[in-house]
Write a structure and sequence with these properties.
Blueprint lengths: L2 H28 L9 E2 L1 E4 L1 E16 L4 E3 L5 E6 L6 E2 L4 E5 L2 H37 L4 H34 L1 E3 L4 E3 L9 E2 L8 E4 L4 E8 L3 H9 L5 E5 L6 E10 L9 E8 L11 E18 L4 E3 L2 E7 L5 E5 L1 E6 L2 E6 L6 E5 L10 E2 L14
Parallel strand pairs: 1-23
Antiparallel strand pairs: 2-22, 3-12, 3-16, 4-11, 5-7, 5-10, 6-9, 7-8, 9-11, 12-15, 13-14, 13-16, 14-15, 16-21, 17-18, 18-19, 18-22, 20-21
Helix pairs in contact: 2-3
């Protein structure tokens, strides 16, 4: 091959090699630098030290201490209703009146019969005295005296029967005025004036239910009853709060009145009765409420928001924010939870900062951005 062709080939190869090296160099220069890990924005809360009440919650029914159905004790025509529906009445207040005239007539008849028998008794007693004198004088036989004594005894027995009839008539007259046997709130009446009422009527005239005080009957799981019994045996008055069905409004505050003596095998629960003063009349008979029973108080534990707690196969954990704005996964032991707050037995100390939002993005060692606080700028992790 001529020398000039060999030189041209070498020159072309060198140019191709330089072009390849230049392209690779340009490619390396154009490749972007790997970005550093981006800080994750989160919300935080500080663990505090405090006390937490241990409570048990159960669905309950408000019940009156005792409920009385107002019934007539005599038959007759109802001529008057002396109460307003829903009215509060005191013991002995007049509620209704039955036509008293038939009972007044019965009383007059009984008194008339009694007066007649009294006159006969006096006459027989006088005859007895005369016969006793005649017997002493030997004018009449002893048999006549015995007969007269029997007659006097019969009239005396008749007077007792007459007295019973008079008292019965007076009692019926009293029963024609129906009064409240207990103090409480009267419900809706079931009979209007003008109707005939009888003692055998099943429904009665109305129902009176005391509402001050009032009780709530609720249930708790049987496996928690020992906590209640332990405190009760110490003589402590266990407080009970009654809440509405949404557990948002507290209706009344009371205390445990009685604990049932057996477990309901069908539900595995134990019934507890609590009593409430109900001074503000917020509880109503047959109302459904949520009863929250305080059985103990945990003292001096770390308290954190329950939303910060995550669960794993190894147990509960939280993310703790360290001073360098990285997070550490910390295993914790929960002592109790109440509403939105949990008491932590081990794993967290008061004053430590924990993440409460953005938890799904966090991993151990992840960098975080903290929200701005009043008078301070937002804290960011250093890259």
């Amino acid at each position: 091959m001529p020398w000039w062709r060999t030189r041209s080939a070498l020159t072309a190869g060198a140019l191709v090699l330089l072009a390849a090296v230049g392209i690779r160099t340009l490619g390396c220069a154009a490749k972007p630098k790997a970005p550093s890990a981006r800080a994750i924005p989160i919300k935080i809360a500080n663990a505090t030290k405090g006390d937490m009440p241990v409570t048990l919650t159960g669905l309950g029914t408000v019940t009156a201490l005792n409920t009385v159905t107002i019934k007539t004790r005599v038959d007759g025509q109802l001529i008057r209703i002396a109460f307003q529906e829903g009215q509060f009445v005191r013991q002995g207040d007049l509620l209704a009146e039955i036509d008293p005239r038939p009972f007044q007539v019965q009383l007059m008849q009984a008194e008339g019969q009694m007066a007649k028998d009294q006159a006969a008794f006096k006459n027989a007693s006088a005859d007895l005295q005369r016969l006793q004198t005649l017997v002493q004088q030997g004018i009449i036989s002893r048999q006549q005296l015995d007969t007269q004594m029997t007659t006097v005894a019969q009239f005396e027995a008749s007077l007792k029967a007459d007295q019973a009839q008079v008292e019965s008539a007076k009692l019926n007259l009293v029963y024609s005025r129906i009064t409240a046997p207990i103090a409480g709130k009267v419900g809706l009446r079931s009979v209007d004036p003008g109707n005939m009422v009888r003692a055998s009527d099943a429904n009665g005239l109305a129902i009176i239910a005391p509402v001050q005080p009032i009780t709530v009957l609720f249930t708790i799981p049987a496996d928690r009853i020992q906590q209640v019994l332990t405190q009760n045996q110490k003589g402590k008055k266990l407080s009970v709060e009654a809440f509405d069905r949404d557990m948002k409004t507290r209706l009344a505050l009371g205390e445990v009145l009685a604990i049932d003596n057996q477990v309901d095998p069908s539900t595995g629960t134990v019934r507890i009765k609590a009593i409430f003063p109900n001074t503000e009349l917020t509880l109503f008979p047959n109302q459904f409420v949520n009863a929250r029973l305080r059985v103990d108080t945990l003292v001096g534990l770390a308290l954190i928001p329950s939303v910060a707690i995550q669960q794993s196969p190894q147990g509960a954990y939280v993310y703790v924010v360290k001073p360098d704005l990285t997070v550490e996964m910390r295993t914790i032991v929960i002592e109790a939870s109440e509403g939105e707050i949990s008491a932590i037995r081990t794993g967290i100390a008061a004053g430590e900062t924990i993440a409460i939002d953005g938890l799904e993005k966090l991993r151990p060692g992840a960098k975080v951005d903290l929200p701005a606080t009043d008078g301070q700028e937002k804290k960011k992790a250093k890259s």
